[in-house]
Specification:
By secondary structure, this protein is mostly beta strands. The chain is 12% helix and 47% strand. The chain contains four helices and twelve strands. The longest helix is centred in the first third of the chain and has 6 residues. It is elongated. It starts with a strand and ends in an 8-residue tail after the last strand.
């Protein structure tokens, strides 16, 4: 089986001349990034493995160093590249109520017994994740992915149960 990859950040630029890079990533992912030992970068439709030798965090970004990348020139080829982990690695670090985006896209959305739409995307507004739900009348509504609104997620049966507050799906 071919590995599936999940993006976990982006190499923004070099940092200094020792081959370190500035890393952009989602908020509150420092613990996860501190524990992984390897990432992948996509180059010409191939995923190249990079071993992490160290990572530290500033208020604005991560500073990451890869084994074997020791100069400014070595790191420049990776500038603006997304970094990935295998889906299996990402899954191992998910909390009980966390999901991978590609697991949620395509799930049917229900209010009680009534199907009200399907998830077509996931985004983040800084405060919470948002499900983009295409309603049965083909409109897109943003549904905050919070416990008060998203009551349950059933990946196996491909269903999300929501509390359809008035005006939520308009």
């Amino acid at each position: 089986m071919k590995n599936k990859f999940v993006s976990v950040g982006k190499i923004l630029n070099f940092h200094g001349v020792q081959g370190e890079a500035k890393l952009g990533y989602s908020k509150e992912r420092e613990d996860f990034l501190s524990q992984i030992k390897e990432v992948y970068v996509q180059i010409d439709n191939e995923y190249k493995k990079l071993d992490i030798s160290r990572i530290r965090f500033t208020p604005k970004c991560g500073i990451i160093k890869f084994k074997g990348i020791d100069t400014l020139n070595d790191i420049l080829e990776y500038k603006n590249k997304l970094i990935f982990v295998t889906e299996e690695t990402a899954r191992n670090f998910l909390e009980e109520d966390e999901f991978l985006i590609d697991e949620l896209v395509g799930l049917d959305v229900y209010d009680g017994e009534k199907k009200v739409g399907a998830v077509v995307g996931v985004s983040n507004n800084g405060a919470s994740d948002l499900l983009s739900v295409k309603t049965l009348d083909k409109k897109i509504s943003l549904v905050p992915f919070v416990k008060a609104i998203v009551l349950s997620v059933d990946i196996k049966n491909r269903k999300i149960q929501i509390n359809n507050l008035e005006g939520l799906l308009s």
